[in-house]
Write a structure and sequence with these properties.
The strands form two sheets. Strands 1-4-5 form a three-stranded antiparallel sheet. A three-stranded mixed sheet has the order 2-6-3, with no helix packed on it. By secondary structure, the chain is α+β, with helices and mostly antiparallel strands. It has helices at residues 3-31, 39-56, 60-137, 141-161, 222-227, and strands at 164-167, 179-186, 195-200, 202-205, 208-211, 213-219. The N and C termini lie far apart (109 Å). Among the domains are: 106-162; 165-222, Roll (Nucleotide Exchange Factor Grpe, Chain A, domain 2), CATH 2.30.22.
Protein backbone atom coordinates (compact mmCIF):
# COMPACT_ATOMS: atom_id res chain seq x y z
CA UNK A 1 0.00 0.00 0.00
CA UNK A 2 1.39 3.43 -0.98
CA UNK A 3 1.95 6.27 1.49
CA UNK A 4 -0.97 8.25 0.09
CA UNK A 5 -3.34 5.31 0.43
CA UNK A 6 -2.29 4.86 4.06
CA UNK A 7 -2.92 8.56 4.79
CA UNK A 8 -6.33 8.40 3.10
CA UNK A 9 -7.34 5.31 5.12
CA UNK A 10 -6.22 7.00 8.34
CA UNK A 11 -8.22 10.12 7.52
CA UNK A 12 -11.27 8.00 6.87
CA UNK A 13 -10.91 6.22 10.26
CA UNK A 14 -10.58 9.54 12.07
CA UNK A 15 -13.66 10.89 10.33
CA UNK A 16 -15.74 7.87 11.28
CA UNK A 17 -14.61 8.06 14.89
CA UNK A 18 -15.54 11.74 15.17
CA UNK A 19 -18.94 11.10 13.63
CA UNK A 20 -19.76 8.32 16.11
CA UNK A 21 -18.83 10.48 19.11
CA UNK A 22 -20.93 13.35 17.81
CA UNK A 23 -23.92 11.02 17.38
CA UNK A 24 -23.51 9.68 20.92
CA UNK A 25 -23.35 13.24 22.31
CA UNK A 26 -26.50 14.22 20.41
CA UNK A 27 -28.31 11.07 21.57
CA UNK A 28 -27.41 11.74 25.21
CA UNK A 29 -28.61 15.34 24.97
CA UNK A 30 -31.89 14.27 23.39
CA UNK A 31 -32.57 11.60 26.02
CA UNK A 32 -31.96 13.90 28.98
CA UNK A 33 -35.19 14.78 30.78
CA UNK A 34 -35.83 18.51 31.12
CA UNK A 35 -35.26 19.77 34.63
CA UNK A 36 -38.49 20.41 36.53
CA UNK A 37 -38.92 23.99 37.69
CA UNK A 38 -40.41 24.54 41.12
CA UNK A 39 -42.89 27.47 40.83
CA UNK A 40 -42.31 28.50 44.44
CA UNK A 41 -38.55 28.46 44.04
CA UNK A 42 -38.86 30.49 40.82
CA UNK A 43 -41.03 33.06 42.62
CA UNK A 44 -38.47 33.31 45.45
CA UNK A 45 -35.69 33.89 42.91
CA UNK A 46 -37.71 36.70 41.34
CA UNK A 47 -38.30 38.30 44.75
CA UNK A 48 -34.60 38.08 45.62
CA UNK A 49 -33.68 39.63 42.27
CA UNK A 50 -36.17 42.44 42.82
CA UNK A 51 -34.71 43.18 46.27
CA UNK A 52 -31.17 43.21 44.86
CA UNK A 53 -32.20 45.72 42.19
CA UNK A 54 -33.91 47.97 44.75
CA UNK A 55 -30.86 47.91 47.06
CA UNK A 56 -28.49 48.47 44.12
CA UNK A 57 -30.51 51.52 43.09
CA UNK A 58 -30.61 52.65 46.75
CA UNK A 59 -34.39 52.60 46.76
CA UNK A 60 -34.50 51.59 50.42
CA UNK A 61 -38.01 52.89 51.07
CA UNK A 62 -39.41 50.68 48.30
CA UNK A 63 -37.40 47.74 49.57
CA UNK A 64 -38.77 48.19 53.10
CA UNK A 65 -42.32 48.59 51.75
CA UNK A 66 -41.87 45.47 49.65
CA UNK A 67 -40.64 43.58 52.68
CA UNK A 68 -43.60 44.72 54.82
CA UNK A 69 -46.07 43.67 52.12
CA UNK A 70 -44.45 40.26 51.87
CA UNK A 71 -44.54 39.92 55.64
CA UNK A 72 -48.26 40.77 55.69
CA UNK A 73 -48.93 38.26 52.92
CA UNK A 74 -46.99 35.58 54.81
CA UNK A 75 -48.88 36.37 58.02
CA UNK A 76 -52.22 36.21 56.21
CA UNK A 77 -51.21 32.94 54.54
CA UNK A 78 -50.28 31.40 57.90
CA UNK A 79 -53.58 32.61 59.38
CA UNK A 80 -55.52 31.00 56.52
CA UNK A 81 -53.58 27.77 56.97
CA UNK A 82 -54.38 27.77 60.68
CA UNK A 83 -58.04 28.48 59.93
CA UNK A 84 -58.14 25.60 57.45
CA UNK A 85 -56.43 23.32 59.97
CA UNK A 86 -58.84 24.30 62.76
CA UNK A 87 -61.81 23.77 60.43
CA UNK A 88 -60.52 20.36 59.37
CA UNK A 89 -59.93 19.36 63.00
CA UNK A 90 -63.44 20.52 63.94
CA UNK A 91 -64.98 18.55 61.06
CA UNK A 92 -62.98 15.47 62.07
CA UNK A 93 -64.09 15.81 65.70
CA UNK A 94 -67.73 16.26 64.66
CA UNK A 95 -67.49 13.21 62.40
CA UNK A 96 -66.04 11.10 65.22
CA UNK A 97 -68.82 12.26 67.54
CA UNK A 98 -71.38 11.45 64.84
CA UNK A 99 -69.99 7.92 64.49
CA UNK A 100 -70.16 7.42 68.26
CA UNK A 101 -73.73 8.73 68.42
CA UNK A 102 -74.71 6.63 65.42
CA UNK A 103 -73.21 3.52 67.03
CA UNK A 104 -75.04 4.24 70.29
CA UNK A 105 -78.28 4.86 68.38
CA UNK A 106 -77.89 1.54 66.57
CA UNK A 107 -77.21 -0.26 69.86
CA UNK A 108 -80.24 1.39 71.48
CA UNK A 109 -82.44 0.57 68.47
CA UNK A 110 -81.27 -3.05 68.55
CA UNK A 111 -81.92 -3.21 72.29
CA UNK A 112 -85.43 -1.79 71.86
CA UNK A 113 -86.21 -4.33 69.14
CA UNK A 114 -85.06 -7.22 71.33
CA UNK A 115 -86.90 -5.78 74.32
CA UNK A 116 -90.18 -5.63 72.39
CA UNK A 117 -89.80 -9.27 71.33
CA UNK A 118 -88.87 -10.43 74.84
CA UNK A 119 -91.83 -8.52 76.30
CA UNK A 120 -94.17 -10.52 74.06
CA UNK A 121 -92.88 -13.80 75.53
CA UNK A 122 -92.85 -12.78 79.17
CA UNK A 123 -96.52 -13.66 79.54
CA UNK A 124 -95.82 -17.20 78.28
CA UNK A 125 -93.08 -17.54 80.85
CA UNK A 126 -95.48 -16.49 83.59
CA UNK A 127 -98.18 -18.88 82.30
CA UNK A 128 -95.78 -21.83 82.17
CA UNK A 129 -94.35 -20.98 85.56
CA UNK A 130 -97.84 -20.93 87.10
CA UNK A 131 -98.78 -24.18 85.33
CA UNK A 132 -95.69 -26.00 86.61
CA UNK A 133 -96.27 -24.70 90.13
CA UNK A 134 -99.94 -25.71 90.04
CA UNK A 135 -99.07 -29.19 88.72
CA UNK A 136 -96.50 -29.69 91.48
CA UNK A 137 -99.07 -28.72 94.08
CA UNK A 138 -101.88 -30.73 92.48
CA UNK A 139 -100.66 -33.19 89.77
CA UNK A 140 -103.85 -33.06 87.71
CA UNK A 141 -102.96 -34.03 84.14
CA UNK A 142 -106.13 -32.59 82.63
CA UNK A 143 -105.56 -29.20 84.25
CA UNK A 144 -101.96 -29.16 83.01
CA UNK A 145 -103.14 -30.12 79.51
CA UNK A 146 -105.62 -27.25 79.44
CA UNK A 147 -102.98 -24.82 80.66
CA UNK A 148 -100.46 -25.92 78.02
CA UNK A 149 -103.05 -25.68 75.25
CA UNK A 150 -103.83 -22.15 76.36
CA UNK A 151 -100.16 -21.18 76.37
CA UNK A 152 -99.63 -22.73 72.95
CA UNK A 153 -102.64 -20.91 71.53
CA UNK A 154 -101.35 -17.58 72.86
CA UNK A 155 -97.92 -18.34 71.41
CA UNK A 156 -99.35 -18.95 67.92
CA UNK A 157 -101.27 -15.67 68.13
CA UNK A 158 -98.09 -13.84 69.05
CA UNK A 159 -96.25 -15.40 66.11
CA UNK A 160 -99.02 -14.24 63.78
CA UNK A 161 -98.74 -10.69 65.12
CA UNK A 162 -94.98 -10.80 64.35
CA UNK A 163 -95.69 -12.07 60.81
CA UNK A 164 -94.14 -15.44 61.64
CA UNK A 165 -95.55 -18.34 59.63
CA UNK A 166 -95.02 -22.04 60.25
CA UNK A 167 -93.87 -24.69 57.75
CA UNK A 168 -95.70 -27.95 58.38
CA UNK A 169 -95.33 -29.83 55.07
CA UNK A 170 -96.56 -33.36 55.76
CA UNK A 171 -97.56 -35.24 52.54
CA UNK A 172 -96.09 -32.43 50.41
CA UNK A 173 -93.28 -32.86 47.86
CA UNK A 174 -89.84 -32.10 49.26
CA UNK A 175 -88.60 -28.56 48.52
CA UNK A 176 -85.04 -27.76 49.67
CA UNK A 177 -85.95 -24.07 49.92
CA UNK A 178 -88.28 -24.82 52.84
CA UNK A 179 -87.39 -28.32 53.99
CA UNK A 180 -84.36 -30.20 55.32
CA UNK A 181 -84.39 -33.96 54.73
CA UNK A 182 -82.86 -35.77 57.70
CA UNK A 183 -83.93 -39.30 56.70
CA UNK A 184 -85.05 -41.20 53.57
CA UNK A 185 -87.30 -44.28 53.61
CA UNK A 186 -88.41 -46.61 50.87
CA UNK A 187 -92.10 -46.44 50.06
CA UNK A 188 -93.84 -47.88 47.02
CA UNK A 189 -97.23 -46.38 47.77
CA UNK A 190 -96.37 -42.71 47.28
CA UNK A 191 -94.30 -40.69 44.84
CA UNK A 192 -90.57 -40.31 45.51
CA UNK A 193 -89.55 -37.26 47.57
CA UNK A 194 -92.88 -37.17 49.35
CA UNK A 195 -92.70 -35.96 52.94
CA UNK A 196 -94.11 -38.69 55.18
CA UNK A 197 -93.08 -37.31 58.55
CA UNK A 198 -92.29 -33.85 59.95
CA UNK A 199 -89.74 -34.16 62.73
CA UNK A 200 -89.88 -30.44 63.52
CA UNK A 201 -91.81 -27.66 61.80
CA UNK A 202 -90.06 -24.71 60.17
CA UNK A 203 -90.64 -20.98 60.44
CA UNK A 204 -90.82 -18.05 57.98
CA UNK A 205 -90.35 -14.43 59.05
CA UNK A 206 -91.42 -11.77 56.54
CA UNK A 207 -91.19 -14.28 53.66
CA UNK A 208 -87.66 -15.34 54.71
CA UNK A 209 -87.06 -18.90 55.92
CA UNK A 210 -85.40 -18.61 59.32
CA UNK A 211 -85.69 -22.34 60.11
CA UNK A 212 -86.47 -25.05 57.54
CA UNK A 213 -88.76 -27.91 58.52
CA UNK A 214 -86.87 -31.13 59.30
CA UNK A 215 -88.57 -33.96 57.44
CA UNK A 216 -88.48 -37.60 56.40
CA UNK A 217 -88.95 -38.25 52.67
CA UNK A 218 -89.59 -41.30 50.52
CA UNK A 219 -87.88 -43.01 47.62
CA UNK A 220 -88.70 -45.98 45.43
CA UNK A 221 -86.82 -49.19 46.04
CA UNK A 222 -83.91 -49.91 43.73
CA UNK A 223 -85.43 -53.17 42.44
CA UNK A 224 -88.72 -51.50 41.65
CA UNK A 225 -87.01 -48.64 39.86
CA UNK A 226 -85.01 -51.05 37.70
CA UNK A 227 -88.13 -52.99 36.86
CA UNK A 228 -89.82 -49.87 35.57
Amino acid sequence: MSENEKNNAKSTDDLIEVDVEDIEDITEDETKEPEKIDPEELEMDNIREEFRELIAKKKYDKAVKKYMNLFKELKQSNKEKNDYLNTAQMIQANFENYKKRSHKDQEWSSFQSKMKIVERFLSFYDDLDRSVTAFNDDPDVESLKEALNLVFSNLKSTFESLNVKTIDPEKEIFNPQYHEAIHVVENEEVESNTIVDVVSIGFILDDVVIKPAKVVITKKSINNSEGK
